[in-house]
Amino acid sequence: MSMNSQGRPTTPHVPSASEVAQTHTGNRALMQEEPLLFELDNPGVCGVDLPEPPTAELRLGKVRPRGTLALPSVSEPEVVRHYTRLSQKNFGIDSTMYPLGSCTMKHNPRLNEKMARLPGFSDIHPLQPVSTVQGALELIDALAHWLKTLTGMPAVAMSPAAGAHGELCGLMAIRAALAARGEAHRRRVLVPESAHGTNPATAAFCGFAVDSIPAEDDGRVSVAAVKAKLGPDVAAIMLTNPNTCGLFEPQIREIADAVHAAGGYFYCDGANYNAIVGRVRPADLGVDAMHINLHKTFSTPHGGGGPGSGPVVLSAALAPFAPLPYVVHGEDGFRLVEHAGEAEGHPFGRMKGFHGQMGMFVRALAYMLSHGGDGLRQAASDAVLNANYVLASLKDVMSASFEGPCMHEALFDDRFLKGTGITPLDFAKALIDEGFHPMTMYFPLVVQGALLIEPTETESKQTLDQFIGTLRALAERAKTGDEEYFHGAPRLTPRRRLDETAAARKPVLRWTRPAPAAQAAAAQAAAE
């Protein structure tokens, strides 16, 4: 094994199966074998002393408890160690690069976290008197102002909780606007085949019929295909720009004009706004409604299902139908318009119980103010530069799906694996052993065996070079026909490759205590 000048190996040692399994405990130094919390159960042990609860009368009618909750009894040190060890097994943006395509998993500045944890923001309650939360309402109003400035749109709904919720908000505003025009018969929504899956799902949820538009050979939407679908029953088009193939739609203005001429509205999926923020104003593209994933474009990586926030900017045509509540500034300070009777326009209703995702609002505004307009523009430029660097550095060993430069995502397909017996899933599993989270696989669906990479603007050239070098090495190894290596990956993780199909079809959702050894032996003997 070769060594560098500091005496460190230049190539990692991959332990054999016998080396991995030789410890008595199953632990591998700092990578410790961790049982379930239920398996640590030690009846009678408790981390706190609590008084016996008083006997209470049941108030559930005829419903009676079927037994205890069977929660594990564990001491305080055991609980702390258990969750600390689990945290060490997590993959996070603070550990290494997170190249998921169409997700924008980038560094979350600690300044944002510091601001979000200020007591005046973190300790307030949505039912407090308005007079006691003036600062929070002012922050929401300021964030709304900058979102409108960046997008060129006259109105914004702040309450939607995430991207799909924002899509729902936009389509409900479109539905309300159509009804006000006396055109509720418009029930068809055009959706490109390359769209995020939530687009057609949201349209169907709102009661619209979904009419798909096929992708062109260059990965973009054709104006002619859109015009061929237009008619008096079209309510809207839902288009992502840049699209899910990581490409800008150059004919977007012509598409918007055609949809408007036919009496429809243009909904833009803003999931990829990170690629154009500060450089392009959606209003100038003819957009009527667009959700903005604050947790993508304005930091706070959203792995694990949250937190999220999806404000929706609206054109002048849709602004009167924006949902409640919204912030206004009067003589007595800031207040929330909560009821339709006091609202200007014709709000279609309410999206959620309270006023939005306060922690995300704080983080997003901190990100905006610390970057400034020029910093946001540079972030978008760097995101596109990094993606094109990845694309240009890999297209000789991996198969790029489309010719020419990309926007914020580099898209490859599985043609480079043809004849190797190795699938994109195998390839991604091998990447885990190298210390990287896999890229997005098999999406967008319009590309066979898609491998979608979004490096974001926050990764250094050194990190990108390491990532690129790793992918090149894996691609070259795959072409040698080393199926065994890829089919067995990952080998270095706490758990090896799982039977994902069985896990999805037969999930084990409840832990059951194993039978005692004697009972298990008796059962085995009886079975034999």
Automatic annotation (TrEMBL):
Transmembrane spans: none
Reactions catalysed according to its record: N(6)-[(R)-lipoyl]-L-lysyl-[glycine-cleavage complex H protein] + glycine + H(+) = N(6)-[(R)-S(8)-aminomethyldihydrolipoyl]-L-lysyl-[glycine-cleavage complex H protein] + CO2
Gene3D superfamilies per the UniProt record, alphabetical: 6.20.440.10, Aspartate Aminotransferase, domain 1 (3.90.1150.10), Type I PLP-dependent aspartate aminotransferase-like (Major domain) (3.40.640.10)
GO biological process, one term: glycine decarboxylation via glycine cleavage system
MF GO annotations: glycine binding; glycine dehydrogenase (decarboxylating) activity; pyridoxal phosphate binding
Function per UniProt: The glycine cleavage system catalyzes the degradation of glycine. The P protein binds the alpha-amino group of glycine through its pyridoxal phosphate cofactor; CO(2) is released and the remaining methylamine moiety is then transferred to the lipoamide cofactor of the H protein.
Residue span, Aminotransferase class V domain: 186-303
Protein's UniProt name: glycine dehydrogenase (aminomethyl-transferring)
GO cellular component, one term: cytosol
Alphabetized UniProt keyword annotations: Oxidoreductase, Pyridoxal phosphate
Source species of the chain: Rhodospirillum centenum (strain ATCC 51521 / SW)
EC number: 1.4.4.2
InterPro entries given in the database record: Aminotrans_V_dom, GDC-P_C, GDC_P, PyrdxlP-dep_Trfase, PyrdxlP-dep_Trfase_major, PyrdxlP-dep_Trfase_small
Gene responsible for this protein: gcvPB
Region span, Disordered: 1-24
Location of the Glycine dehydrogenase C-terminal domain: 380-478
Broad EC category: oxidoreductase
